[in-house]
């Protein structure tokens, strides 16, 4: 089975605008994915780490990527195909609550 990294983007305003029943179903699916072995979690404040040419570590607070919505969470899911991973991602909280979920195949 292939593994996929998911990155969810969304904000509280979009979440709050979404029907609570739709949000609840999305959270149930996330709980089922985790129970089946997926890794999922909300994103906290990031740091950037650099160690160019292994000459010394430089750490800078804040994100490197920029997007129209803040990063809300990450996951690692398993699916047979990218299409199956997309179908799972389409029911995640960020996807249904006015945000977006990126699905990245994990090359191993």
Automatic annotation (TrEMBL):
<protein>
    <recommendedName>
        <fullName>YCII-related domain-containing protein</fullName>
    </recommendedName>
</protein>
<dbReference type="InterPro" id="IPR011008">
    <property type="entry name" value="Dimeric_a/b-barrel"/>
</dbReference>
